[in-house]
Amino acid sequence: MTVIASTCQHCKVSFSYVRQARGPLRKFCRQRCGLAWHNAKAKARKSDKPNICAQCGQQMSGRIRKYCGSDCSRLAVSTRRALAYVPHPLPISGARIHIDKMVCLYQGGATLEEIGTLYDVTRERVRQILKQNGFTRANGGSQVRLEIKSQQAEIARQKKAEARNRRYLAEHGMSFDDFAPFNDSHKWGGYTKTPFFLFKDQRRNARQRGVGFGFNFADWWAVWQESGKWDQRGRTGESYVMCRLNDEGPYKTGSVYIDTLRNNSILGRTLAFEQEKPKTALYQIVQAAGGRKAVSDATGSPRQYISSLAITGSFPKCWIEDGRIQRIAELTAGKYSKEQIIELAAA
Predict the structure, then answer these.
(1) Is 296 in contact with 307 (CB distance < 8 Å)?
(2) Are 258 and 266 contacting, i.e. CB atoms less than 8 angstroms apart?
(3) Which percentage of the chain shows pLDDT scores above 70?
(4) Contact 252, 212 (CB under 8 A)
(5) Distance of CA 28 to the CA centre of its chain
(6) How far apart are CA 290 and CA 216, in angstroms?
(7) Confidence band of 89 (pLDDT split at 50, 70, 90)
(8) How many helices and strands, by DSSP H and E, does the chain display?
(9) Residue 118, by phi and psi: left (phi above 0), alpha (psi -120 to 50) or beta?
């Protein structure tokens, strides 16, 4: 540590301080003097800058600003907007050249007000000059701006449509225009009857059963169109459904065919017997309750739906609340209670 004597640069008072090893040298006796000295330097730098209006060039007093008043500010903005429509630089001397520049500005989209502000004349005088040279409201000004905006809007719509088509091609295998009729509820008599809804319904059911689904909508629809059985699709025994070869593997092109629901159910039971697949707990409960016909009558659900539940081994949660599980337990004649059915289905 070293004791150093110094003089304050602001108040010129002598002072001494203790300097640590490699510590900074002090220029001021206290912090207040340092702040005052820096503020004075900043004011001096500002006073050195010329305070001149950027539009009219007059010397201004007071605080530093760009324009001397609102008139110069508006004139500068109008000039900048008008010159933005000049397609190429033009000279600014001579009456004929001024008129040609007015015409050029007007054809580029500048309004009469902006051109008048640029040349310090009224908008009516600008209109008269343009009319003498064969230009009317339909040849420029706001009409040109409107056309430019319309073109930009059309380009934006086209880009948006192209992006949407790319997204639909990647997701559904067809463009949006080709896909829209398949999702039109008015055309098919209700949203639940549209091909796209039925496609999503089959995909959801396949995933719930743990079966892979490798179709997009375009390939799935092509399978149905090649079969010619779309109008006969349904859930009754003689209705047609999409089946898997040997009832195994995912739903995908080359591994499915269209057949009746009855034949598909028979094939599924036959293959299950041949492969000795273990029965689910819900299947045992359905058999104990008197078979799928008795359970169907007690719950008010189709037999095919009861069969699919017995295969998957689960039932809807709403059956617990509306009492259908209790009715099934009563059909088993005490072999299974309501709690046991819920526990076995959840296992």
Answers:
(1) no
(2) no
(3) 83
(4) yes
(5) 60
(6) 41
(7) very low
(8) 17, 4
(9) alpha
The per-residue b/e assignment along 166-188, b for 16 or more CB within 10 angstroms, e otherwise, is: eebbeebbbbeeebeebbeeeeb
**Owning domain of residue 306:** 278-347
Determine contact, residues 118/78, Cβ cutoff 8 Å. yes
CA distance 124 to 111: 11
CATH number at 329 reads 1.10.260
More confident: 86 or 12: 12
Give yes or no for a contact between 92 and 101, defined as CB atoms under 8 angstroms apart: yes
* Residue 241 backbone dihedrals phi, psi, to 5 degrees: -135, 170
Q: Who contacts 281 (Cβ-Cβ below 8 Å, separation ≥6)? A: 313, 344, 345, 347
Say if CB 242 and CB 214 are below 8 A apart: no
Query: Considering its fold, how many domains does the chain have in total?
Result: 2
Name the nearest CA neighbour of 308 among 198, 211, 181, 216: 211
Closest to 313 (Cα-Cα) out of 221, 210, 217: 210
Within a 13 Å sphere around the CA of 80, how many CA atoms are in the beta-carbon half?
8
Write the CB contacts of 74 (distance below 8 Å, at least 6 apart in sequence). 117
Instruction: Report how far residue 160's alpha carbon sits from residue 271's, in angstroms, rounded to the nearest whole number.
Output: 50
Residue 30 lies in a domain: yes
Query: Angle at which helices 261-275 and 303-312 pack, to 10 degrees?
Result: 30
Is residue 62 one of the residues assigned to a domain? no
Domain annotation covers residue 235: no
Tell me if 142 is assigned to some domain. Answer: no
Q: Are strands 256-260 and 240-244 parallel, antiparallel or unpaired?
A: antiparallel
Instruction: For residue range 129-165, list pLDDT tens digits in order.
Output: 888 888 887 777 778 888 888 888 999 999 999 999 9
Collapsing DSSP to helix, strand or coil, 43 comes out as: helix
